[in-house]
Amino acid sequence: xxxxxxxxxxxxxxxxxxxxxxxxxxxxxxxxxxxxxxxxxxxxxxxxxxxxxxxxxxxxxxxxxxxxxxxxxxxxxxxxxxxxxxxxxxxxxxxxxxxxxxxxxxxxxxxxxxxxxxxxxxxxxxxxxxxxx
Length: 133
Known about the structure:
Blueprint: E1 3-10, H1 16-33, E2 36-43, E3 47-54, H2 57-64, H3 67-74, E4 83-87
Antiparallel strand pairs: 1-3, 1-4, 2-3
């Protein structure tokens, strides 16, 4: 069964796209030589995402422990909160069951109550009404 590894790098003082250009060749070469069968880069609003697929868990762990990988991950733009590494594909794409659509909030989705009828006060009787012709 293929093992996915996702590395998300968030923009910091410098954009994550610069980190990608500086380290992508070393990371991809290390991944290929240690058994990666697929890799893909994604650009996001907040940084970059690298998704890797390994044939086995042992190859994935061997890749993560390489000095070149550790050095690349130590060089992310935001060292405090700019790095996420986790198993599986990025985002929620690893879900086995698709999410159902929620109803969209729409104006006038529920009917407003009918206004109360206006109350009129009639002080004249029928014989008091005068019509003009």
